[in-house]
């Protein structure tokens, strides 16, 4: 499976969704860590 998808419409949207989910989880962990820290 090539890194550059021949169909960027679906592939790029899926990649953006995965990246957005990862970023959201990272921010959520950072916020929880900040709240948990005294």
From TrEMBL:
Transmembrane segments: 15-37
Organism whose genome encodes this protein: Streptomyces caeni
Protein name: SGM_5486 family transporter-associated protein
Keywords of this entry: Membrane, Transmembrane, Transmembrane helix
InterPro entries: SGM_5486-like-assoc (IPR049750)
UniProt xrefs under NCBIfam families: SGM_5486_fam (NF040912)
